[in-house]
Amino acid sequence: MAEVEATNQTLLVVGGGMSGITAALEAAEAGYDVILIEKNPYLGGRVTQLYQYFPKLCPPNCGLEINFRRMKLNPRIRFFTLAEVEKISGEEGNYNVTVKLNPRFITEKCTCCGKCSDVCDTEIDNPFNFGMDKIKAVYLPHEFAFPMRYVMDPSIVGTDEAKKCKDACKYDAIDLDMKATTFDLNVGAIVWACGWTPYDASKIEYYGFGRYKNVITNMMMERLASPNGPTAGKILRPSDGKEVKNVAFIQCAGSRDQNYLPYCSGVCCLASMKQSTYLRDQYPDCNITIFFIDIRALDRLEDFYTKVKEDEKVTFIKSKIASITEDEATGDLLLEGENTNTGERIQMTFDMVVLATGMVPNSLDLESAPSVSKDEYGFMTLDPNNTGIYGAGCVKRPTDVASSVQDATGAALRAIQSVTRR
Ligand SMILES: Cc1cc2nc3c(=O)[nH]c(=O)nc-3n(C[C@H](O)[C@H](O)[C@H](O)COP(=O)(O)OP(=O)(O)OC[C@H]3O[C@@H](n4cnc5c(N)ncnc54)[C@H](O)[C@@H]3O)c2cc1C
Fold first, then answer.
1. Does the beta carbon of 394 lie inside 6 Å of ligand 1?
2. Separation of 245 CA from ligand 1 center, angstroms?
3. Is 31 left (phi over 0), alpha (psi -120 to 50) or beta?
4. Are 286 and 391 in contact (CB under 8 A)?
5. Is residue 247 part of a domain?
6. Which among 306, 338, 359 is the end of a domain?
7. Which of 392, 361, 337 is nearest to 266 (CA)?
8. 282 shares a domain with 384
9. Are residues 24 and 160 in the same domain?
10. Are 314 and 290 in contact (CB under 8 A)?
11. Ligand 1 in contact with 81 (CB < 6 A)?
12. 33/143 same-domain check
């Protein structure tokens, strides 16, 4: 087991999304050494998968790039991708942490020339696009990936295919003997910023996700609209690649329901409104219906709601959709339910349905780690009697990027206070 140099004045940040990156940068720029651990082969978290940000509709990669530049310029931050925490012991001011480093099989010599990928015949489901397309088994995770380096899927290691890729690399950047390793760290405080996972829509059986190709989730919609997505940014029906003319959004898909996800994720209404603008930009004649329980658009985001409501092609219906049925011949989808304002029965057909599914927190939940306090839904809470490990961002509540960044700045300050107290 290797040692990575750290002291009880070092802060560990786990999770390299917007919250983790912010906490790491704020602490490093205040003069503290930080180690950042990210399980994906790249930093940026879920934000890297979004096409645009509400309410300004700007590309998320702009904000990320500024942060990556700040990181590159700051020698106080060391980061590890494909890394996960295995064990935490100790207490505030003196934690011992074991980190597992999974093999990338591609070294720092990689220039991203892509020759290894060109000769690779094996394809895998593209995790970045939720399996809506395939990628080569040796691939760049996405075009803005930081670090900008290829990764080899472990499924081909040990095969002739992997050797062929290695032979094609004239920079000798492929190391097929790379193994998972662990290293130990001594740190003074920990910021847990592991974010969220989309709620598993296949659990809501009556919406047919996984059975009906044209029922997609809100995160899949982000990828469909993205120029680096599975359809190069053109929003097309997954079943037949046709352009869409009539699209439904079902809000609170599984959310605010004791049988699934009992809470509101706070951002899904705004995400659907934002996605309605993606559709209207591409298809001026497309009709959009948003089925909602209550619209949540707080503070300054109310203006965005007002703007979307002014669009005559976007209809909001207060309702509960009870079921979706597919017409097997056409792939069209029949939605049935009740208009909760008028009591009328809803029976409407759409080309495609977007389920606005909620966010599930990736809170600290390791067997060998100090227990941390959580609320009834599993979100991490601040426990005044148990300091030293602090949640940041969406592990504390489902929220937007601006609030995650603010929260992460607060978590960095608390972590700094932890190490300076000792
Ligand atoms: C459909 C949809 C659209 C959205 N659109 C917008 C928008 O337009 N504007 C906006 O402001 N917000 C939007 N959001 C919300 C936004 O995605 C979140 O605010 C943001 O992702 C929070 O960042 P985070 O760093 O807390 O979490 P994440 O983005 O989830 O980052 C967490 C990171 O931790 C890593 N990680 C997880 N577990 C581990 C582990 N065990 N070890 C190491 N690393 C780990 C993950 O790989 C990830 O990189 C949207 C949300 C949804 C659902």
1. yes
2. 30
3. left
4. no
5. yes
6. 359
7. 361
8. no
9. no
10. yes
11. no
12. no
Residue 142 lies in a domain: yes
SS3 content of the chain, % helix, strand, coil (to 5): 25, 30, 45
CB-ligand 1 contact for 358 (6 Å cutoff): no
Residue 189: helix, strand or coil by DSSP? Answer: strand
User: Does residue 108 belong to any structural domain of this protein?
Assistant: no
pLDDT of residue 225: 98
353 and 248 in a common domain: yes
Question: Whole-prediction pTM value?
Answer: 0.97
Among 314, 330, 359, identify where a domain stops.
359
Whether residues 339 and 391 fall in one domain: no
How much is the pLDDT for 335? 98
Alpha carbons 129 and 28: distance in angstroms, whole number: 33
Quickly count: other Cβ atoms within 10 Å of residue 372's Cβ. Answer: 21
Q: Based on the fold, state whether residues 156 and 209 are members of the same structural domain.
A: no
Q: CA 64 to CA 17: how far, in whole Å?
A: 9
Same domain, yes or no, for 353 and 210? yes
Distance 314 CA to ligand 1 centre (A): 27
Ligand 1 nearest-atom number relative to CA 53:
8
Mean pLDDT within 152-158: 97
User: Is 328 within a domain?
Assistant: yes
Return the structure tokens found at 379.
């979100």
DSSP 278-297: HHHHH-TT-EEEEEESS---
What residues make up the domain containing 415?
A: 2-102+180-195+362-421
CB of 314 within 8 A of CB of 280? Answer: yes
**Distance (Å) from CA 409 to ligand 1 centroid:** 16
CA 322 to CA 157: how far, in whole Å?
A: 46
Are residues 30 and 204 in contact, defined by beta-carbon separation less than 8 angstroms?
no
Tens digit of each residue's pLDDT (9 = 90 or more) over 177-187? 999 999 999 99
Q: Following CA atoms 62, 63, 64, 67 in sequence, which dihedral angle do they give, to the nearest 10 degrees?
A: 120
Residue 3 has pLDDT above 70, yes or no: no
Do 40 and 149 lie in a common domain?
Answer: no
CATH number, domain with residue 92 = 3.50.50.60
> How many structural domains is the chain composed of?
3
Taking the centre of ligand 1 as the mean of its atom positions, its distance from the CA of residue 336, in whole angstroms, is 32
- Band (298; pLDDT cuts 50, 70, 90): confident
Q: How far apart are CA 87 and CA 95, in angstroms?
A: 10
Instruction: Provide the greatest CA pair distance for the chain.
Output: 68
- The CA-atom distances, in angstroms, between 331 and each of 208, 212, 244, 309, 350 are 12, 8, 12, 29, 9
Both structure tokens of 404: 């995650």
Mean pLDDT of the chain: 96
